[in-house]
Amino acid sequence: MLIEELTPPVDPNWDPVIREPPYKAPPSEQQTQWLPRDPPLPGGWVAPDERPPMWAPMPVWQPPPPTPAWQPPPPPPRPVRQPSQGLALASMLTGLLGLVLGCGGPVPGIAAVVLGCLALSQIKRKPEDVGGKAMAIIGVVTGALTFLFYGVLLLWVILVAVFGSL
């Protein structure tokens, strides 16, 4: 025998009336019921009819909030001025007066340089409390020019005395 029969032998005691078959065929009029699909994987393709809507529902209209009572605008902030340094002002004035007027010889120049250096050292120590750096620099420069002018004048007088008239 080349083909083996694999079907079980027929049971002679089997009666279809005693035991009903376990499967019942659905009636032909019943609609097909679709089961919901599993959620798609992230980045997977979703049919257009299964996508959630892309827009949010329109919010319910609400009146705008009442406007606040008018208040005047706040005044603009005042600029913060650094207090000027008295030593710097004195240095500048002494240096300018010694250079322009020439009274007192080299003494106003020396005083302007000393006062300007003191003012610059105070400004360097406390820049937030003390101002007037430009005035102190002007005082040092004009004082030095006054002192230099009188130094050259003194040198010329000495040379004239030693060598005669030049």
Structure summary, number of beta strands: 0
Order of helices and strands: HHH
Look at the helices and sheets and give the structural class.
mainly alpha
Q: Give the number of helices.
A: 3
**Low confidence ranges:** none
> Share of helix among residues?
25-40%
Work out the strand percent: under 5%
What kind of sheet is the major sheet? none
Radius of gyration: 54 Å
- Given the C-alpha coordinates, what overall shape results? rod-shaped
Mean pLDDT: 80
Span between termini: 154 Å
Written account of the structure:
This protein has helices at 86-100, 107-125, 133-163. It has 166 residues and is mainly alpha-helical. It has a domain at 86-163. α1 runs parallel beside α3 (133-163) and α2 (107-125) runs antiparallel to α3 (133-163). The longest helix has 31 residues, at 133-163. It is rod-shaped. 17% of the residues are buried. The mean pLDDT is 80.
